Sequence to fold (342 residues):
Amino acid sequence: RRPAAPRPAASLLQALGLHDSPRGAPKSRSVPPIMWRLFRRRDPQEARLSPRRTPPGATPRPCHVEELGVAGNIVRHVPGRGVRARTAEPSAPERCPTWTLLFDLSSVEPAELPSRARLELRFAGEGAAAETDGSWELSVAQAGDVGAGPAPLRQAVASLRAPVRAELLGAAWAHNASVPRSLRLVLALRPRAAGPCGHLAEASLLLVTLDPRLCHPLARPRR
Amino acid sequence: EAQPSVGGSHGGSCRARRLYVSFREVGWHHWVIAPRGFLANYCQGQCSLPATLPGPGGPPALNHAVLRALMHSAAPGPAGLPCCVPARLSPISVLFFDNSDNVVLRHYEDMVVDECGCR
Fold:
């Protein structure tokens, strides 16, 4: 284990809502473009360096993520750890595979309130699927809910060439539910007609939460 | 890095001074992706008259601070002068990797001193 941070640094980390200093950049992980975009739009000092991006005099609302249009002061990009669950018989109507995805959300504090959970899926088609547009239906359910009726999230997918995005909150994730330590989702991508199956290449979750402890009520301007 | 005070121990009237916080110096540069650091600044200076009175475009003065400065100028006593403290602050955002290999963007309010005032 890393030696505990010296006292002042530990206090500052705590003030920033972090328990200890993370171990550092994982070798296999680059920073997703969406996170760079959010950072550059959000950081006032960055904005001062590139005033073109921020209209003069505009101060971002505290505890609000303008670009995503929701309340929040923490945005996480969580890589999905995919496990191929089941491949049906080629002749069965559900002949395409389903996937079980696991998202590690243990770093989210109990006090944090989810305001947006966007699933982003990249498919690599098997042969023709990558080239032609077709029509698929994506269904997403929490692993614990599989078999208890239709999937809470069903979405039409017109093409596998672009990332497929699906909003989980209010669908596969109840709005007022707290953030679980790990989120297990079961995905299925079914071609509407007898078309080719898609193949899940990458999955990630963009999670926006609001930590009320880091939000200060807006000070009333002096009369 | 801090801007040294000029002239005397408190360097003139109350105002913001430059203080740059480098994440490398704090030893966080291996997990903070951006920024490399930020201008936090700090407040220092005298809060005697007329610095305590509101300057053009500056933060409004607190009546109590003006009263204290007036009393001090008339008869210096144990109450002393008002203090030079942050009067307007602004936020920063930090992009980093956490221990679950997530990329995290956190927004922190009140991290940069934009203006100082006597309180």
About this structure: Chain B touches chain A at residues 26-28, 30-31, 33-35, 38-39, 60, 90-110, 112 (CB under 8 Å).
